[in-house]
Fold this protein.
Amino acid sequence: MIEIASKRQKIENILKKYPNAIIADVTSQAKDGLVRLSPFYPHGGIPVPFSEGYTATCVEGIWQGLKVFENEDVDISMFGNDTMKGIKRTVRKHGRVLGHRKGVHGTQILGYVDAKHLIYIPTYRWMLEHKAMDIIERLRKASETKTIDGIR
């Protein structure tokens, strides 16, 4: 069984609920190989949805790069960020978020929910299937006999 918990939850409380759980930190702060499951991890070569010929180093770089603000459009430089830092683009700096552009040169601006379904989830899935399948298989195998508690 796999359970998902917030990083804000104390490990002790998770272990009270699932005493034999394997804690799998998949955040950008993970201290082991599971960091490769973080959307910030710079795998490289991740296709940018609806953007023929564009790739990015990480999932979050695509999400932030296609974000459109009232004072700034897409930022393809985000696709090359391989530091796991400085990826977030904020309203403080760029103004109100209008949505996410459906592709680098697309004309459609997607709302948050549509963007999650059309950009973020397929991109993260692609990353898991093409860049981290070894980890997914190990977690799947372990979940047959143990509870895995994923921290995000």
